[in-house]
Amino acid sequence: MKAPELPIRVALLGAGIFARNAHLPTLVAHPSVFKLQAIYSRSEASASKVAELVPNDYLHGAPKVYFDQGENVDGERTLDALLSREDVDAVVICLPSATQIKVIQMALKHGKHVLSEKPVATGVQEGLQLVKDYENVLKTRDGGHLIWQVAENWRCEPAVIWASQLFSTLGNGRVRTFALTCYLETKKDNQYVKTGWRTGDGATLPGGFLMDGGVHWIAVLRAVVASAGWRVDRACAFGGLWLDYCAPMDFISGILRLRQGDGSQSETLPSGTVNMCFAASGKPFEISLTVVCESGTLYFQVKPDPIDGTRKYFVWWVAEGGEKVVEKTFGFNGIEEEFRTFAKAILRVPELPNVRNNEYGQGDLSPREALMDVTVIEALLDSAGVDGKPMDVPNMLVL
Amino acid sequence: MKAPELPIRVALLGAGIFARNAHLPTLVAHPSVFKLQAIYSRSEASASKVAELVPNDYLHGAPKVYFDQGENVDGERTLDALLSREDVDAVVICLPSATQIKVIQMALKHGKHVLSEKPVATGVQEGLQLVKDYENVLKTRDGGHLIWQVAENWRCEPAVIWASQLFSTLGNGRVRTFALTCYLETKKDNQYVKTGWRTGDGATLPGGFLMDGGVHWIAVLRAVVASAGWRVDRACAFGGLWLDYCAPMDFISGILRLRQGDGSQSETLPSGTVNMCFAASGKPFEISLTVVCESGTLYFQVKPDPIDGTRKYFVWWVAEGGEKVVEKTFGFNGIEEEFRTFAKAILRVPELPNVRNNEYGQGDLSPREALMDVTVIEALLDSAGVDGKPMDVPNMLVL
Questions:
Q1: C-alpha distances in Å from residue A331, one per residue of A222, A334, B168
Q2: Chain B closest CA to A292's CA: distance in Å?
Q3: Same domain for A114 and A194?
Q4: What are the Gfo/Idh/MocA-like oxidoreductase N-terminal domain coordinates in residue numbering (chains A, B) (predicted)?
C-alpha cells in the first residue's frame, strides 16, 4: 500500500456532539489536507444533519451521506458500502464507545486508516484484543502502513506537551508526588448527559463520565510522567454516585503509584492523588495537575481566563524556594493537532506542507497509549468497587 | 476540688522550640489569667534558657527552674518536686512525644490540670490507654473537674472554626468529596529536623513529620466535617521517603472515606484525597483543603499573604455556578485561643473576665479528638506500609 497523496480522502463516521462540533469543522477547515468524501450515521436524518454543516463553498463539494437505518436503505449507502469505496483513504470514527469498537475493526479490515475517539474501548480486555488484532494482523498486511490512532486530543495539546518538557528538563523527571484534581458541575441538561449512552439508566459505558472524561486527564498525567519513563503501577480508590443522571459513578478519590516502565527504580516509588468529581457544585470546570519534583514543582491548570473568560491552559514551573520561573498560557489546540498527527502518519511525512509548524512536538496517539489510560481508570473503578482494595495496573504498553 | 481562682498558677514543662516561641510568650502575655510559677526541662541549662525569656518586668516575678539532670540535682528541684507544689494548679507540657505521655500521667496523678502538646501519643494504643485512665480514674477522683486538654492549636484557629461553620450552614454538611494537600519544603537545617526526635536516625516519633505535622491538618479536615457528624471510616495510602533527614517517611498519598458517626448514612459515602509531602521542592509552605458540597465548595488555604508576606488563613465559599459568596482572611490565633480554652475549662466559666470576646467559638481540645487525629494518620501510615491495603479507622470517640 503506498501512502495516499494530499488531500487525504476521509469519511466521518458519527453524528454526535463531538462529530458536529469538533471533527467536522476541523476536517473542512483544512481542504488542502483532507477531502471530506462521506458522512455516516446510523440514521439518515442525523447523517444529513451533519452534512448540512459543511459550508456551501466547501472546496470539495458536498459529502455523500451513508446510514444503516430506515425503510428504504439503498444498498449503496450502508456503512459497508462506504468502507468499500476505493476513493476513501481514511475514516474518522466518533460513535458511542460500545458501538465504536466493531466499526474500528470493520474499517481496518477494509484497509482504511482510522482515527477513533477515546476511550479506545469500554474496557481493558476488549481494547487489548483489538489492539493485538491490529498489531498482529491488520496493520502488517499492507507492509505495516495501515494507521490506527486514537483521538486523545489532550495528549496533543501544546500545553500538555510543554508541561511534559518542563517535567523532563527543569524537573529532570524526578517526581516525588503529584495531585490531579478534576471538578465539574454537571447539570441535568448537560449535553453529554443527554446523549444517554455515557451515563444514566441506559448507559453503555462502564464508569460513565469517569471513563469518558477521566481518560483525558489520566492522559495528561501519563503524558507528563511518561516523558521520564514513569508508568502507573498500582491504584486504590473510593467512589460513588451523587447525581442519578450521572450513573453509574460520578466521583472517585484515588491514589496512584508510579514505577519506572523498564523495571529500574529507586527504593522510593513516587505516588500521588487523583480526585475526580462530576458532581462538584461550585466548580463549573476545573482541572489541575501539580507535580512535585526534586528540583521544583510543575503546575498545569485548566480554567477560565480571568481576562476574557474563555477556557485556557495555564502551565508554570516553580523552583526550589518558591520562585516562579517560567509560565505560559495556551488555548485549546488539541483537536487540530490530533488531525495533523493523523495526517502525518498516513502520509509518512515529518511535517505537512503549507501548514504552520508546531513548535511543541506531537502527542502519541497509538492505541496502546489510549488503552493505558483506560487501564488506569478501570483500576480505579475496580478498586472503588471493592472498598479501596489495591489494584495492580498492568503495563499495557508491553502486554 | 474547687475551681482555681485567677490567675491560674502554671508550670511550663519543656524547653523546646514551641515552648520557647509559643507557650512561654502566650503565658507571660496574659498575667491576669496565668501566673507562671515554674519551668521544667530535663537539663538545668535548657530550663534556665527558657526562664531567661521571661521579661524582667513580668508581673509575677521570675519562675523557679526545675530539672532532672546534672550532678548536683537538688531534691527540691526535680519534676516530682514541682508537681508536688500546692501552689501550682496546672501544667503546660511541651516535650518530645515519646517522653510526654509519662509526664502527662504523672501530672494528672498529682492532680494538676494538663495542657499537653500534640500528638496526644505516639500511637493509638498508647493514647487510648491513657485517655481511658484519665476518664475512668484520674478525671473523676476530684469530682470530674481535673482537666486534660491537648493543644491542637489548629482546631482553635478562628479560621478553622469559621470554615466549619460555613460547611454546616452554607454547605448543610453535605460533603461530596474533598482534597487536602499539605506541601512543605524541608531543608536539612530546618529547626524541627534539628530536634532529632521527630525525624532522622534517632527519631522516636512513628511517622515523623507526617505524624507531627499531619495531625494538625487532619484536625482541620475533621473539625470541618465533624461539624455535620462525619467521621473518617476507612483509609488507603502509598508513601515513602525522599529526604534521609526526614526519615522514616516524608510523603504520603492517601484517600479517606467518611461515614456518619452515629451510623446513619446515605447509600453514597463521601471520600476524598490527602496528599502530604515534606519534600515538596518549590512549595515552602502550602496547606489547602477543598470541600465540595451539594450546594457549593468550601476553600481553606494557608499561604503567604500576597501583600505583606506573612502566613495567613484564607477561607471562602463558592456557590453553585461558581460565584464566590463569602471570604475572610485570618491571622494565626490558635495558640492564644487554645490557652484561653484551657483556662476557661479550669475556671469552669463560659468566658474569661477582662479579655476580648472571641466571636468564632472554641475548638474541642479533648484528648479523644486529638487521639482521633492520630488514629487517622496511623491508618494512613499503616496502609502505606502494606502497599495501599485499606485500613478501617476505629471511632476513637466512642471506644
A1: 21, 9, 38
A2: 6
A3: no
A4: 8-132
